[in-house]
Amino acid sequence: MTLHLETEAEEGLLLYEKDGEIHKKPMEPAKGGLRVRVPVHVSPFRYCFLLPEGFLGSHGLEKTLPRYDRFFHLLAGSLPPWWALGTVYYQIFPDRFRQGRKELAPKDGEWLLMGRPIRKKAWNEPPGPEGAWEFYGGDLWGILEALPYLEALGVEALYLTPIFQSPSSHRYDTEDYLQVDPHLGGEGALEALFQALEKRGMRLVLDGVFNHVGATHPWFQRALKDPESPERSMFTFYPDGSYATFWGVKSMPKLDYASPLTQERFVHGPRAPIRYWMRLAHGFRLDVAHSIGEGGTNRKNARWLRALARAAKEERPEAVVFGELSYDAIPTLRAHTLDGAMHYAGFAHPVMEWLSGRDVHGRPVHLDAQETWRVLWDHYQALPVQLRHSMYTLISSHDIPRALWRLKGDVERFKLAYALLFAFPGSPAIYYGDEVGLSQPNPYAKWQGDPYCRAPFPWEESAWNLEVLTLIRRLVKLKRTHPALRLGGLLPLDAGKGVLAFKRRYQDQEIWAFFAPEGAKLTLPPGIDLIAEKEVAGEVEATFLLFQPV
C-alpha cells in the first residue's frame, strides 16, 4: 500500500506493528505532504506516523507512542463491495409499509402468540403497546408496488426487517428460515421484488436473525422435549431447565455456535439461510451481531461473524454483510469480520443527544456542537479506513424512537439532522416514513421506540410534510452525484461556538458542511449553496448549509 499523509512536515516515519515489534520506515516528500510504500503483511494492519511534533494516530497528535487501539487500522483482502460505499438505504418494516394484496393479511385472532390471539388492525390505527401481536397486513407485493415512489426518492438499496415465517408481526422469532412468510406473499413475492429491483439497478438487503430462533421453531421444540435429540446441542440449557435467550426473552432461544449442527445449519451447509437466500438478495444485516457466539454467550463472536460474512460472499461475491453492533463497533470491525455496522455509537446516538437533549433511553444529556463533533471524529478516525463509507448511518430505526418524535416535532431540527446524516461519511439510511414526517403516537413523557416507532406508512399524500420530502430528495441527489459526499474524506472545520462543521474532500473537490440548531452567521468565500442551488458569498445566516467553494 502507498500511504499519503497531508502535512506541512518535511520529514517523518511510518511506524507499524509486525510480529510484535514496531517497525519504522522513512517517508519521502510528496505533493502536499509525505508518502511511504509498505507491504501489508497482516490484516488488520496497524500503523501510526512519527512527525517532528509527535506521534499521529487515530486520536490525533500524542507526545508518546499511542496504544495499539489508537493506531490507524487498515484491512486487506475481502472488503465491502463498491456499490455499498456511500449507498442510500431505505429501511422497511414489511408489515407496516404497504399492503399489496388484502387477502394475504392475517385475520383477527387467526392464531395465538404466546397464548394470546393476534390482532388485525386498520391501516390508519396507531400502533399500541402490544406490537408483536398487532398486524396491519403490509406485504412484499406492496413494496413492489411502491418501487416507483422509492426510485423517485433516489433510494439505491432496500433493507427489510425479517421476512421469514414467524408468528409475530416483527418476525424476529423465526419458525422457518427457508420459507418467506406466506402473509408477506411467500417466495414468489420475494422473487418478483428482487427481479424488479435488479432491473432498476437497486439492491436488496435482508435481515439475518442468526443469534436466536423462535421458540416455536421445530428445532427448538425437539431440543426442548427430547434431551437426547441432536438439536439439543444447538441451544444452551442450564441445570435448572432454563435456557439461554436473547435478552431474557423466552420466545427467542439463543443458538450455540459451538455445536457442529448449528454450524452446518447456519454457516456451512448449502441450506444455511445466509447462503440459500443469496440467490434472491444482495446481502444481509445481522441482527444483534454483537451477541452471536458460543455457550449462551458471545464467545468467539468475531470468528462466527467472519464465517457468516464469508458464507454469503462465497454464494454472491459482491454481497454486503453488516451488523447490528449497537455499542462500540470498532473492535469488531477491526477484527476483519463484517463490511460495516449500524452506526449507533459513532453517529446516531451523539447526534440525537445533541439535537434533542436526551439519550436514546430518554435520560437528559447536554452536548454542545464541539463535544458532539469530538465523538463523531473519534469514531470516524478509529474505524478501519476501508469501512468508513460502508457504515449503515442512521438517525431513526425500528428499534429506537423516531427522530422527529425525539425532537418534539421540531421540523427544522429534523431537517438539520437529515442534512447532517447525508453530509457525513457513510451509507445514509432513511427509515420508512421519515421522509414524509412520520412520527409516533405515544406522548413524549412515555419514552419508548418499539413498538410505537413502527406505525404504518401514511399513503395519503395530504398527510405528508412535503417540505421534508423535498429536502430529503435533494439530499439523496447530492449524495449520489457529488463524489466528495459519497467517497470523500472527513476533515475538521472551525466555524465558531455552537456550530458543528466539517469538510468533505475527494481529490480536488471540497464541500463544507455547517450545522447550528440555534442559527449562525457564517463568513464564506464565493461558492454554491448546494441545497438551495444558488450562489452565495460573504456573510450568510443558516441553521444548516452544504457549501461548495468555487
UniProtKB/TrEMBL annotation:
Keywords: Glycosidase, Hydrolase. One of its GO terms (molecular function) is hydrolase activity. It comes from the Bacteria. Pfam families: Alpha-amylase. The keyword Secreted does not apply. Residues 91-479 form the Glycosyl hydrolase family 13 catalytic domain. InterPro entries: GH, GH13_cat_dom. This is Glycoside hydrolase family 13 protein.
